[in-house]
Amino acid sequence: TRNVVIYGNVVADQQAYSRPRSSVYRSSGNNQHSNKPTTPYSQKRIYVIEKGGKICFSAYPLLQCLGSSSPQGYVEKQVEFVCLQPSTVTQHWQELINEGVNPDFSQKKPFQTFTIQVPKSCQP
């Protein structure tokens, strides 16, 4: 058998949130990004989407509702993503994200920008 070691550029949530993130979350119509605090019903997480057969990871964590909580409205955001061919590495990153870890994609290039809807806030 063969052991496969996957090295990732992973940082703890505390480190991810302490970074300056200027011009990361560009809302339609203005240049401000959302620094809304998380609540017991929400958390900032890396978004994962599929585009053109590739797995795309948001460069920075965005607000997501947890458990059975519901979004209280949405806002459209222009968000930078890193898109990669599906592989054991992208599968590993998806598993980490599902466990609540936010891998650091901010240094991976090139970025592709997509418009997505992000919750304004979350309620039970």
UniProtKB/TrEMBL annotation:
<feature type="compositionally biased region" description="Polar residues">
    <location>
        <begin position="29"/>
        <end position="41"/>
    </location>
</feature>
<feature type="region of interest" description="Disordered">
    <location>
        <begin position="18"/>
        <end position="41"/>
    </location>
</feature>
<protein>
    <submittedName>
        <fullName>Uncharacterized protein</fullName>
    </submittedName>
</protein>
<feature type="compositionally biased region" description="Low complexity">
    <location>
        <begin position="18"/>
        <end position="28"/>
    </location>
</feature>
